[in-house]
C-alpha cells in the first residue's frame, strides 16, 4: 500500500490504493471469505466501501467481519490533549473518536473522555483541528522531506492492543490488550470487548439507528466484539456536546462523497463484475 507523501491529496492516494485494495479483497473473497478483514489503507473512508462492494459482488460479504482502522485519530486525540491536562501517559486517557478517517470527517469526542477532561473554550477548536489535520503538521515539521508517518508505527501498535481497560500487564502497558487476542477471545465468548472501528452500519446490530441519524452507511463508532465479529455498534451520538454536533454535520457532509467514490469505483471496475 502507498502512504501519503508531501503534496499528495486523498484523491492521489485513492488513485493508487483503490485498485490495490480491490485486488487484495478479490483474493480474500476467493480464498478465505470468512476471514476478519482490517483495512488501514488510505483513504479509509473510501477503501472500506471498496472492500465491501467487492465482497458483495462475490456473494461473501459479512459486514461483521470488515473493520476500518481509525486508531491513529484516537492516538492523536489522546496525545494532544495532554498539552492541556498535563497527563503525560496517554494510556490513562480514553478519547472516543467517531466519523471517518480524514480531515473534517474526524470527530473527537472530548466531552466523553474517561476520565473527564477540562478543556478551556479557547483551546477546544485548535485542539480539534490538530487532531483532524495532524498529518499536515507532521509533513510541515519534516520540511517536505517525508510523509505523515510519525505516529503510524505507534498507531499500528496501538491497534494491536485493545483500548479496553484492564489490569496492567508486565510489559508496563497500562490497560492494552492485543487486538487480535481480543478478537479471538471475543469469538470464544468473552464479553465486554470494545474497539472503535469504521464499519458498514446496516450490517451490525445497533448500526441502523446510527446510519439513519448520520445519513451514511459507513461510520466509525465503538464496536462490541463477539463470536461473530462486530456484534453491536454503540450509539454515542445522543451524548454529543453542542460543538461536537456541529463537527458531526461537517463530518456527514464530507463522508458521503468519499463513500460514494469507493462504491462507484467498484461499479466501474470490469474486474469485479
SSE topology:
Layout: H1 10-31, E1 37-39, H2 44-57, E2 66-68, H3 71-80, H4 82-85, E3 97-99, E4 106-108, H5 121-132, H6 134-141, H7 152-160, E5 161-162, E6 177-178, H8 179-187, E7 194-200, H9 207-214, E8 218-226, E9 229-233, H10 242-267
Parallel strand pairs: 1-2
Antiparallel strand pairs: 3-4, 5-6, 7-8, 8-9
Shape: globular
Q: Which range does the strand content fall in?
A: 5-15%
Number of strands: 9
Distance between the termini: 23 Å
Order of helices and strands: HEHEHHEEHHHEEHEHEEH
Structural class: alpha+beta
For the largest sheet, list the strands in their spatial order.
Answer: 7-8-9
Rounded radius of gyration (Å):
18 Å
Mean pLDDT: 84
Number of H- or I-type helical stretches:
10
Largest sheet: 3 strands, antiparallel
Helix content: 40-55%
Low-confidence stretches: 162-178
Explain this structure.
The protein is an alpha+beta fold and 273 residues long. The chain is globular. It starts with 9 loop residues before the first helix and ends in a 6-residue tail after the last helix. The longest helix is centred in the last third of the chain and has 26 residues, at 242-267. The protein is built from ten helices and nine strands. Residues 162-178 have low confidence and may be disordered.
Task: Sum this structure up briefly.
This protein is α+β, with helices and mostly antiparallel strands and 273 residues long. 45% of the residues lie in helices and 14% in strands. The longest helix has 26 residues, at 242-267.
Amino acid at each position: 500500500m502507498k502512504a501519503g507523501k508531501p503534496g499528495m491529496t486523498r484523491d492521489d492516494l485513492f488513485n493508487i490504493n483503490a485498485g490495490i485494495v480491490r485486488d487484495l479483497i478479490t483474493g480474500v473473497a476467493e480464498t478465505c471469505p470468512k476471514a476478519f478483514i482490517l483495512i488501514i489503507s488510505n483513504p479509509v473512508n473510501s477503501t472500506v466501501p471498496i472492500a465491501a462492494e467487492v465482497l458483495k459482488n462475490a456473494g461473501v460479504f459479512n459486514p461483521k467481519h470488515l473493520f476500518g482502522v481509525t486508531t491513529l485519530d484516537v492516538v492523536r486525540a489522546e496525545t494532544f490533549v495532554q498539552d492541556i491536562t498535563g497527563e503525560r501517559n496517554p494510556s490513562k486517557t480514553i478519547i472516543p473518536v467517531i466519523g471517518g478517517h480524514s480531515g473534517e470527517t474526524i470527530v473527537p469526542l472530548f466531552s466523553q473522555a474517561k476520565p473527564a477532561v477540562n478543556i478551556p473554550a479557547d483551546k477546544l477548536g485548535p485542539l480539534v483541528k490538530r487532531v483532524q489535520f495532524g498529518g499536515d503538521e507532521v509533513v510541515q515539521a519534516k520540511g517536505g522531506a517525508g510523509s505523515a508517518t510519525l505516529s503510524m508505527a505507534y498507531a499500528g501498535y496501538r491497534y494491536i492492543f485493545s483500548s479496553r481497560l484492564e489490569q496492567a500487564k508486565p510489559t508496563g502497558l497500562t490497560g492494552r490488550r492485543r487486538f487480535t487476542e481480543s478478537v479471538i477471545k471475543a469469538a470464544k465468548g468473552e464479553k465486554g470487548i470494545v474497539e472503535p472501528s469504521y464499519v458498514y452500519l446496516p450490517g451490525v446490530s445497533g448500526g441502523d439507528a446510527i446510519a439513519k441519524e448520520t445519513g451514511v452507511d459507513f461510520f466509525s463508532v465503538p464496536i462490541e466484539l463477539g463470536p461473530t465479529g462486530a456484534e453491536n455498534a454503540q450509539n454515542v451520538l445522543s451524548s454529543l456536546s453542542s460543538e461536537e454536533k456541529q463537527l458531526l454535520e461537517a463530518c456527514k457532509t464530507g463522508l458521503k462523497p468519499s463513500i460514494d467514490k469507493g462504491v462507484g469505483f467498484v461499479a466501474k471496475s470490469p474486474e469485479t463484475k
